[in-house]
Amino acid sequence: MLFHISPADPTPIYAQLERAIRLGIATGRLQPDAQLPTVRQLAVDLGINANTVAKVYRDLERAGVLETRRGVGTFIKKPQPDVMPAGERERLMKALADRFLAEAAMHGFTADEFLAHLNGRLTKEKGSYAPLQS
């Protein structure tokens, strides 16, 4: 199955699906120009309402993650060249890392534990990732 959705997870179904699609892209399992299943097909495969899938596709299209090609289907959008200045990119990366580390620590995880988990996760999703270093 392309995506996993859990009815037992307290996270809303649409948020689980959006997260699964974004994770597939982030790990390289979903490549640019890859065609996603139709709304109806994905809804049947996951056992969820087609309106939920349509909402996620629409939201991800607005966010620039997906693109719909009329009469053809929904595809992973090719990344646009990054126009963010290097300094701004570094500032954003630092802010994300700080927020991530603070949240992990709040839940009792060390940075090394989480890096080991991320390495395992990336290896599982796509074996060609180079390990992260702590």
What key attributes describe this structure?
mainly alpha, 2 domains, 5 helices, 6% strand
CATH homologous superfamily of the largest domain - what is it?
A: Winged helix-like DNA-binding domain superfamily/Winged helix DNA-binding domain
Give the overall shape, derived from the CA principal axes.
globular
Strand count: 2
CATH topology of the largest domain: Arc Repressor Mutant, subunit A
Strand order of the largest sheet: 1-2
Overall pLDDT? 87
- For the record, the count of structural domains works out to 2
What is the H/E string? HHHEEHH
Main sheet attributes: strand count, strand direction, barrel closure: 2 strands, antiparallel
The low-pLDDT segments are 127-134
Which band does the percent of strand residues land in? 5-15%
CATH hierarchy, class of the largest domain? Mainly Alpha
- Round the Cα radius of gyration to an integer and report it: 17 Å
Count of helical regions: 5
Summary?
The protein has 134 residues and is mostly helical. It is 53% helix and 6% strand. The radius of gyration is 17 Å and the shape is globular.
Can you describe what's shown?
- It is a single chain.
- This protein has helices spanning 13-26, 39-46, 50-62, 86-106, 111-125; strands at residues 66-69, 73-76.
- 10% of the residues are buried.
- The protein folds into 2 domains: 13-76, Arc Repressor Mutant, subunit A, CATH 1.10.10.10; 86-125, no CATH class.
- The chain has 5 helices and 2 strands; from the N terminus they run αααββαα.
- The protein has 134 residues and is mostly helical.
- Strand 1 and strand 2 form a beta hairpin.
- The model is unreliable at 127-134 (pLDDT under 50).
